[in-house]
Design brief:
Elements (H helix, E strand, L loop, with lengths): L7 H28 L3 H31 L9 H26 L8
Keywords: Membrane, Transmembrane, Transmembrane helix
């Protein structure tokens, strides 16, 4: 068994960090686009771009984690790598969920 690299915690927590950044960007964009005059179209554009970028980042992170787990020098598939892959998958689901919610619910609508 080999010691994890210094970047191992980033591989494990990268998925939740990407989801957190996506969540904050999407909901901050709604607030700013609606109050600063950008309107729903700007909000939808920012949400779509942020969701695509987050999913792309998660796909890259998944591939990095999978490559680290499948390295020929490795004799076992450590639990930490399973957790890292699982967190990336759960984060991808969360990104899709929050992105769809932000796109499907009308933006910049005042409560009646």
């Amino acid at each position: 068994m080999t010691r994890p690299s210094n970047l191992a915690p980033l591989r494990w927590l990268g998925g939740p960090l990407i989801w957190t950044a996506h969540f904050l960007l999407v909901y901050a964009a709604e607030s700013l686009a609606c109050t600063r005059g950008g309107g729903p179209l700007l909000h939808d554009a920012i949400t779509a771009v942020a969701t695509f970028a987050a999913l792309l980042g998660l796909a890259v992170l998944f591939r990095i984690n999978k490559r680290a787990a499948d390295a020929p020098s490795r004799e076992d598939f450590e639990m930490a790598e399973w957790i890292g892959l699982g967190l990336v998958a759960i984060s991808a689901l969360a990104v899709v969920w929050s992105g769809l919610a932000a796109l499907l619910i009308p933006a910049c609508v005042l409560p009646a």
